[in-house]
Every structure is written in structure tokens, then in C-alpha cells.
Specification:
Layout lengths: L2 H15 L18 H12 L11 H18 L6 H17 L4 H12 L20 H6 L10 H18 L4 H9 L6 H13 L4
Helix pairs in contact: 1-9, 3-4, 4-7, 5-9, 7-8, 8-9
Length: 205
């Protein structure tokens, strides 16, 4: 374990023990040049249009998903009061996070910090929606229609694909990837906030 990871784990534990909830920090990803192969791969990942329908390989997996949905639904009530909206949102987060190879609790924690689960949130730097996606991504890897960033599945797909891209670019270093997602690479406040929030969404019990 690296010194950075030991420090980060200690910081997260300390924040969680003291119940500290850091203020939301809306995303401000910086536009960076992409090589053609990366741009093509990201564009393809965004364009894939399968609906967010869960698929299970066993009854055990299906039951685990049902338990997770029940637990997360109860926690999400303070943010979304309509049951059908909560179900659709959680199903889509579950689908898109797994599609991108991300931990679902991490994605929910990031959404809490970025937008407090507000679909139409707009930051002071113009980031949009649940995962506070910067409009330039629509031009770089999408169809240039920035209004679609307020569509739930589109926003969650962009956000998950972008975070996956940053994780790959940082060779799996979550601390650095989260900083890059927020436009504060190398600073600890934002990664700490997301990881503390993620702990609250990572345990169904």
C-alpha cells in the first residue's frame, strides 16, 4: 500500500467518525486534448443505446439486487419523494455504473457531492445534471446537443464513462481520478468528500 493510499484511508476514516459532511463541489472537468483512438472509444461508449435493464446470472444475484434496491430506495427518499422516480434512477445508476466498471456506491456518492441528486443542477462553471457533466463533452464525444445532459440516462452515462476514462488515465488511482473529474487534481478535499459519501451508499444493510 502506498503512502498516499494509507493517508487517504486514514483521512476518510477520520471524516466518517466525526460525521463531517463537506459542502457540495460541482464538477469542473478541464477540457484536455484526446488522441483519436480515445475519442473514438469514448464516443462509442456514449452512443451505445441499450436501455438500463438489469440482467442477472443467478437467482442469488437477483435477490442481492432486490435487497440493494430496497435499501437504497429508503435512503433516497429524502432526495426524491416519488417512488417511481427513485426506482428508475436507482436502476439506471446500477446499470450505468456496472457498464462502466465502476462501484455503484462510488457513483452515488459522487452524485450526492456533485448535485445533491438534482436532475437539473447547473454549477457556476456550467456543469450540468446529476453528475455535473461539462458541456464541452457533448461536443468532444457526443452529438453537441448539450440539452441532452439533463436527460437522466444520458447524464449518468456521460458521467460514468468520463470517470472510467479518468481512472484509466490515472492507472486506477481513484484519488487522482476523482480530482481530475472535479478539476482539482492532486487536492484532497473533493476526493475525501466523495469517498465519505460513497461509504454511506455502499452498504445495503
Amino acid at each position: 500500500m502506498t503512502a498516499r493510499r494509507r493517508w487517504l484511508q486514514g483521512a476518510i476514516a477520520g471524516l466518517a467518525c466525526h460525521g463531517l459532511h463537506l459542502p457540495a463541489r460541482a464538477g469542473g472537468q478541464l477540457e484536455e486534448p484526446l488522441v483519436d483512438s480515445v475519442r473514438t472509444a469514448l464516443s462509442s461508449a456514449i452512443a451505445f443505446s441499450a436501455p438500463p435493464v438489469p440482467e442477472f446470472t443467478s437467482d442469488t444475484a437477483r435477490r442481492a439486487y432486490a435487497r440493494w434496491m430496497s435499501a437504497m430506495d429508503a435512503r433516497l427518499q429524502r432526495h426524491k419523494r416519488v417512488p417511481a422516480e427513485r426506482e428508475e434512477f436507482l436502476q439506471t445508476v446500477w446499470y450505468e455504473s456496472r457498464r462502466a466498471g465502476l462501484d455503484t456506491g462510488l457513483v452515488l456518492g459522487l452524485i450526492e457531492v456533485e448535485s445533491a441528486f438534482r436532475k437539473f443542477a447547473v454549477s457556476r462553471v456550467g456543469a450540468r445534471g446529476y453528475m455535473q457533466v461539462m458541456p464541452f463533452w457533448s461536443r468532444v464525444i457526443g452529438d453537441s446537443d448539450t440539452s441532452r445532459l439533463f436527460h437522466m440516462q444520458t447524464n449518468l452515462r456521460f458521467g460514468c464513462v468520463i470517470l472510467r476514462h479518468y481512472l484509466d488515465r490515472e492507472r486506477g488511482d481513484l484519488f487522482m481520478a476523482l480530482g481530475r473529474y472535479n478539476g482539482s487534481r492532486g487536492k484532497s478535499a473533493y476526493p475525501n468528500a466523495v469517498l465519505v459519501a460513497a461509504q454511506r451508499w455502499s452498504h445495503p444493510g
